[in-house]
Write a structure and sequence with these properties.
The complex is a heterodimer of chains A (342) and B (318). Chain A is of the alpha/beta class and 342 residues long. Helices cover 49% and strands 15% of the residues of chain A. Chain B has 14 helices and 2 strands; from the N terminus they run αααααααββααααααα. The chains are: A alpha/beta (342), B mainly alpha (318).
Chain lengths: 342, 318
Amino acid sequence: MKIGKSILYSALFASAALGIAHAQEAEKQYRFVMVSHIGSNDPNMNWLTTSLKEFEAKYPDVKTEYISTNNYSVQEHVRLLEQAIATQPDGIAVPIVSSDAFEGPLRKAIEAGIPVVAFNIPDGRPDGERIPYLTYVGGDEFLTGKKLGEYALTKVEAGEIPKPTHVVCASHDSAHQGLKARCAGMKEVMEKAGAKFDELFIGAEPATARNTLQSFLQANPDTNYIFTVAGWSSPWAWGVANDMKLDPDVDDKGVTVLTVDEGPVSIEGVRAGHILATNSQGFWLQGYAPMEWLYWYKKFGYAPQQSILTGPIVINKDNADQWATQVRGVFGDKAYDEQNTW
Amino acid sequence: MKYLVRSQGFGATVGVIAMLAVFTVIDFSGWWTVQTLSNVTQFTAILALVALGQALVIMTKEIDLSVGSIYGLTGVAFITLEPSLGVPGSLIVALFIAAIAGFVQGTAVVKGELPSMIVTLGGLFAARGIIYVWTGGSVHNFSPDARTHALTRLLGGELFGIAAAIYWVGIISLLLSIMLWGTRFGNRLLATGGSRESAESRGVRTDRVKTAAFVLCSLLAGFAGILTLCNQPQTHVTLGENMELEAISAAVIGGCLLTGGRGSILGVILGALIVVSFRYELIALGAPSSWYITFVGAVLIVAVIFNQKLARFLGHSV
């Protein structure tokens, strides 16, 4: 009987302990940190912060944090990442702006049991060599340049825009491997089409960027395509070409301007006939999906078996109105109009 | 000629002559075109305005690292406040913001006896942070009405095919020259940088002089930002980023000694011309645009050595 009582008490104690543990597990709050290079100097940040808010509303047991650099500095980004790792979050989402610079801190974090999801920019190295993050969620930067270039060539064939003779890829950050990949994608297509291709570092300061681009166009008068790898720099490129009377609007003569992103400035540039095309790389998903994968991994052990591509999709005059409606729905009319810098 | 050699801007004058000679030999048809000269001089005018303010501060033996951010903040304030205040109202308020920023920093330096490098480094970050918070990442444009406003055209338009900024830098450099070499304030400003103790022993309120120099510096940087936007209203929150380094370079290449007390208005303008021309011509010659920074660094070091040797040759203690 005594033995029976002991077994009963032990069983009750064990079930109580298990129940408490289970309850604790069920109530566990997770903290995921997104360490981004898209800061308050970049309107695209709104996509990510908006999607994180929606994620938190759907998963109340998760607290998300968005931290970012406000300048285009890999060193600053690495410093933020190290600070985030030191707080021991339950998961990290980070763009791999520089594989070399991020390798050390991210491997340490992963070894310490912090799952990492790469977003926006993957580690471009082969599988065995790359940082062992859970997965990558984002666009394919090379494809972004390539698809936009291919779209331009279809318009050349249709006689709507001039044949490319010399293409310049204007970049604001010379160390950003995602931007380099965009240029590389465009380069592949344009060189195959017989055009000369140059990559030009214009910097992020508007007046300096204009001065730099104008110097280039002046010295290379055969340049008839400008590809800006940030949406917000497309009005500068258009403005410089317009000041130089190079006819930068979309027609069958003069200079043709292409850009990236689904922000208001890019979409309105297309709608106004200043920009031939831009792209969407699914920014909203790039905020939401990494958090969801981190959550499912922590909670249930799920890990995706391959990268999750959220783009690119070409935005042109045929679908720009739809995109404008969609983006207005996410940002609101006031923010959309304020971000239209044309 | 003797006056020119004794001038602190002599190094920059020699530099510009050498630079133009080299550009003429290697790229005559590319350099001597109306478009090239128009682009170079317009941007030189903007940088020169920022550098002139910087030169005033350097002449008082201080430095202002916040000019790029003040340039940006004033420009952003001008464009953001325009819908509610109109062009004249937003111009006044934006310049007032610049003046306040200069006054606060100048006061912190002289009253707090703090190094200007640290105070203005704080100013650099603070002003840039305000831009980010205020704009939320994007700066909207002037309305079509604002673009055609008479004041906008006066500040950002053209006269006889020459950009307004060039006239403005001409007028302001003339006024600054008169102030520096023809007024008691100018004399006191140079005396404050040359020897503070000596100036104070002669009754100069060096704290007031330095504060005034910081206010003028911020006002000139802010005015340059406004001129830029009146000419090109499409902008971004990065407006003025890293401009402080170019402004300091232009001032130093132009003959300002970091030991204070000496400088040249003409030299600063020529220093800005050298900085801008190098960027332009390097790109025109097909060099990667990031090489420009290396060249500016090299020119800066050569200029410092030359200006110091010149000052010693003329019997000044530096």
